[in-house]
Design goal:
The complex is a heterodimer of chains A (280) and B (260). Chain A has 13 helices and two strands. Chain A is mostly helical and 280 residues long. Chain B is mainly α. Chain B is 76% helix and 0% strand. At the A-B interface, helix 1, helix 2, helix 4, helix 5 and helix 6 of A face helix 1, helix 3, helix 5, helix 6 and helix 7 of B.
């Protein structure tokens, strides 16, 4: 009885989360297997047809390549930042810029690259004046190649943000211990630091993968025609209900996205728990 | 003497600096270029306030940011304090739900949102400001982390008992005693939420509301420089917000920054 009374003030919070997060998610799951109130695998089966499969494949390619590129380059950049003085203005500025680019960029990043390497982009015009070669010629910016470039631009800063805590968790004493036992700097990194950082690094790769897989705004602003990747196929099937001759296909596509992201995030949580043992 | 190590470091800083700053410079250059007559013009930047549709969209997004912050604080702060004081059995559930939006993409939420929004628009009318409800959910993970860090750094139990034993009610305890002590967390949550709402595109565009980001994409189809100017403006605004936040929370041991 007391429990019920103490639970009452939590009701508004639970109500908002249930209505605006849980119900939409359940709607997606249920609607992808119930068509007009009857259980049917028709919509899910359509996921395994040409357009949907190639969108999924492109999405996986895009997410995996930018996750790896972003993680490698981001880890190097995180190391650069961590080894500079912790209170310096440079460090604050760089970290704030990273947060903005990683998490709030969206549409703006698409326009940043249109202004740089688009048809009238600044870099395009420079190169054209200098060499006569048209950098934006084939329209690659609007295809998978362009998406990889723009996604890497927000994946690197995200890696910086998630990997810095792991780097800061490396204790100075461990390096001193290794060095006093006769290890070179290289041996310290190979035998101590890299094995310690590996779970955190792999976890970050998974987080970056999920981040790119679910990203929508940048791609939507950049690619206005065609649906090369899963999020854009979801847009197409939302905007015109009967794309691919299937109404309600967006539900099945969204379910596919939930499943992929959930698997990746579950693996991420396992790895984080592993690395938390050392780098607390 | 300069060591090989610092040469490599310097070179890496320059490379990363170029990769990240050049597109931002290109935006500034592109948005001030006069495409017809050559030379420079501030027309694209002037459009931010003179273009009626864009100006309205900016106002809508700013209102949404304010409403979302207010709603988020009203919903989250008392809940998190209450969970710590009187309902610790619910802590796991609250944390799980707050972090859940990191796993469920905004795109998925918007696909499943149609039925819910039929009710919302039926009850509250057709307005872009109704997006506040979803935005509160979208900013939950960021806000939860900021406020949770602040709450962990104070002795909440003692503060609350002291206030209550001096005769304060729960409302007074929360607003006049606890909140002033977790000010840095509340500030972080508010700033980050503003940045998220101003940059949000997915939900607004697929629900058919004209917020700033939606308008930027619409204008981009006919007037590139204005879109680029507006994009750069939102990036700079977000950057300024987070930089101010990092300076305000300077010297604190706890991590109140934006981490995923």
């Amino acid at each position: 009885m007391r429990r019920v009374r103490d639970g009452l003030p939590l009701l508004p919070f639970f109500a908002v989360v249930v209505v605006f997060l849980i119900i939409p998610t359940v709607t997606v799951v249920v609607s992808s297997v119930y068509v007009d109130g009857v259980f049917s695998l028709e919509r899910v089966a359509a996921l395994f047809t040409g357009t949907a499969l190639s969108a999924l494949l492109n999405s996986v390619l895009l997410s995996a390549s930018t996750a790896l590129l972003g993680a490698l380059l981001g880890a190097v950049m995180a190391w650069l930042i961590v080894s500079s003085p912790p209170t310096s203005m440079v460090r604050r500025t760089v970290l704030s810029l990273c947060s903005v680019l990683a998490q709030f960029g969206g549409v703006a990043l698409a326009f940043a690259f249109l202004a740089t390497v688009g048809l009238n982009g600044v870099l395009t015009l420079w190169i054209q004046q200098a060499t006569g070669w048209n950098l934006a010629g084939s329209g690659w910016l609007y295809g998978l190649g362009g998406l990889i470039l723009v996604y890497t631009y927000f994946q690197i800063p995200l890696m910086v943000i998630v990997f810095i805590p792991a780097l800061e968790g490396l204790r100075e004493q461990w390096r001193e211990a290794a060095v006093s036992l006769g290890a070179s700097t290289w041996a310290y990194w190979r035998e101590v630091a890299i094995p310690l950082l590996t779970p955190a690094f792999l976890g970050s790769v998974l987080l970056l993968f999920a981040n790119a897989f679910a990203a929508y705004a940048t791609a939507a602003a950049l690619v206005s025609q065609g649906s090369p990747i899963l999020p854009l196929l979801i847009r197409a099937s939302l905007v015109s209900e009967v794309v691919l001759g299937q109404s309600g296909f967006a539900y099945a596509l969204a379910l596919e996205m939930i499943v992929v992201v959930a698997i990746v995030m579950a693996a991420y949580n396992l790895l984080v728990r592993r690395s938390a043992r050392w780098l607390a | 003497m300069i060591s090989a190590r610092s040469v490599v470091r310097g070179a890496l800083w320059v490379l990363f600096g170029l990769f990240f700053c050049f597109p931002l410079y290109a935006m500034a250059d592109f948005s001030t270029r006069n495409l017809l007559a050559g030379g420079r013009t501030g027309q694209a930047w002037a459009n931010l306030v003179t273009d009626e549709a864009l100006y309205q969209a900016i106002l809508v997004s700013l209102s949404l940011a304010v409403l979302t912050v207010v709603a988020m604080l009203i919903l989250l702060v008392p809940t998190m304090i209450w969970v710590r004081l009187r309902a610790p059995w619910a802590k796991g559930a609250v944390e799980f739900l707050c972090l859940l939006p990191l796993t469920i993409p905004a795109l998925v939420i918007v696909v499943g949102l149609r039925n819910v929004y039929l009710w919302v628009t039926y009850l509250l009318g057709e307005s872009a400001l109704t997006l506040t409800f979803v935005y509160v959910v979208v900013v939950l993970p960021f806000s939860y982390r900021a406020i949770d860090a602040a709450l962990s750094s104070i002795d909440l139990q003692t503060l609350a008992e002291a206030a209550r034993s001096l005769g304060a009610g729960w409302a007074t305890t929360i607003t006049r005693v606890v909140v002033p002590n977790i000010w840095s967390g509340v500030l972080s949550a508010a700033f980050i939420s503003i940045a998220v709402v101003l940059g949000e595109f997915t939900i607004a565009s697929l629900s058919g509301y004209e917020t700033l980001q939606v308008q930027i994409v619409l204008i981009g189809k006919s007037d590139g420089p204005t879109s680029v100017a507006a994009s750069l403006a939102t990036l700079l605004f977000g950057f300024a917000l987070l930089l101010i936040l990092s300076l305000l929370t300077r010297g604190r041991r706890q991590q109140t920054g934006v981490t995923l």
